[in-house]
């Protein structure tokens, strides 16, 4: 009777040991899976970060190029504005000189005609 009871307890211990061993293996496998997933996420994060840094470098280079182009365009606009002002000044002076010359000749009709022609220029 005691042997039967002892064998029964022994079998229960073996069963518990096997059960706890299986649970231990399962817990280890779950931890390994979690670590693998974390490792994959870290690799993906590192790759995404590298991609973003490369894109940022390209964008910075593009912005520098655009700034140079903008500065060149602004310089050209200023130069053309100066030319336009000079041209307008020359035209105004030419109209004025023509009008004065016509006035000095006392021919109002010629003065008006010359002023209109010069203004059309």
From the structure above, extract its key features.
2 helices; 121 residues; rod-shaped; Protein NUF1; single chain; mainly alpha; 0% strand; coiled coil
Structure notes:
The protein has 121 residues and is an all-alpha fold. The protein has one domain. It is 96% helix and 0% strand. It is built from two helices and no strands. Helix 1 packs antiparallel against helix 2. The longest helix has 103 residues, at 2-104. The chain is rod-shaped. The N and C termini lie far apart (131 Å). The mean pLDDT is 88. Residues 21-83 form a coiled coil. Keywords: Coiled coil. This is Protein NUF1. It comes from Pararge aegeria.
Report how far apart the termini are. 131 Å
Uncertain regions spanning at least 5 consecutive residues: none
Could you give a short account of the major beta sheet? Answer: none
Structural class category: mainly alpha
Averaged pLDDT:
88
Rg over CA atoms, rounded to whole Å, is 47 Å
Return the string of H and E elements.
HH
The rough form would be described as rod-shaped
* Beta content: under 5%
Organism: Pararge aegeria (speckled wood butterfly)
Protein name: Protein NUF1
Coiled coil: 21-83
Keywords: Coiled coil
Concise synopsis of the structure shown:
The chain is mainly α.
List the helices and strands and how they pair.
Elements: H1 2-104, H2 108-120
Keywords: Coiled coil
Coiled coil: 21-83
Protein name: Protein NUF1
């Amino acid at each position: 009777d005691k042997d039967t009871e002892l064998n029964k307890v022994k079998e229960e211990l073996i069963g518990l040991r096997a059960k706890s061993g299986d649970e231990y293996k399962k817990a280890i496998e779950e931890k390994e899976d979690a670590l693998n997933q974390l490792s994959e996420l870290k690799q993906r994060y590192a790759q995404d970060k590298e991609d973003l840094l490369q894109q940022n470098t390209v964008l910075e280079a593009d912005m520098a190029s655009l700034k140079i182009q903008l500065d060149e365009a602004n310089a050209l606009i200023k130069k053309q504005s100066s030319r336009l002002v000079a041209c307008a000044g020359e035209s105004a002076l030419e109209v004025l000189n023509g009008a004065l010359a016509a006035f000095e000749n006392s021919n109002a009709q010629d003065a008006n005609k010359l002023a209109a022609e010069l203004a059309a220029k």
